[in-house]
Amino acid sequence: MDERILSLASLTVLELSPPQMIEVAVRAGYSHVGLRLEPATPEEYHFPLVADGDLRRQTLRRLRDTGIAVLDVEILRLKPHTVVADFEKLLAVGAEFGASELLVAGNDPDEQRLTDNFAALCDLAAPYGLHPHLEFMPWTDACNLEQALRIVANADRENAAVLVDAFHFDRSGSRLEDLASVAPARLRYAQLCDVAGPRPADMAEILRQARNERRFPGEGDCDLHGLLRSLPANIPLSLEIPTVKLLEQGVSGLQRAQRALDRTRELLAQL
To answer: Which residues form a coiled coil (predicted)?
Structure first.
């Protein structure tokens, strides 16, 4: 089995505060975490790390005390009226936590403007040591691997990357042969989960599954062996596996994080 970074993503244990999440990560055996500096939706419960200095200091202290490192910070959305310069405070906080990767969603139907803003974000992020990753999701305006690669290539920035999430890869109909041909420098980490059943015809159902109902690696129908073999060897993996039903059944964040890690290690041992 390859030794690689295995990081606990916020969405897996979204109910936990950042210090609690770090404690769960170290108890379960992770080396890294991902921190959500901006909520993904207005409805999502959010711990305001950027605005709350006390919470930020508590989180930094827990990172120091446990030895857990931060892999990525999320989630920036590039929209039609986005002013990229407004993201600078968030980038500074990401750098303060020692993150190297930045998750970005494309929510602008004007692909040229989206590309220009992504390029500007890469320029703004570079002095902070951050690599913006455009994550393709089938309901966004970077809807599949092909489009995300085109935007990143046209942005033409050294620190630009594409983020492959196993759920979105499956539900967007992206192809393993296309993934295998991507330059490794454009793929600095990936998000891992499993996916149950065929792709729904209804995009709202795909979105619901993405945010609430993923499977642990090896417990669904996704070709995760093929996916991992098509990605760069030893690529860091962020385990992003929201399972709202388990949360509602009282399965703890530690139990869910541990199951995610155990299933991932089993999967990696099979490669």
So the answer is: none
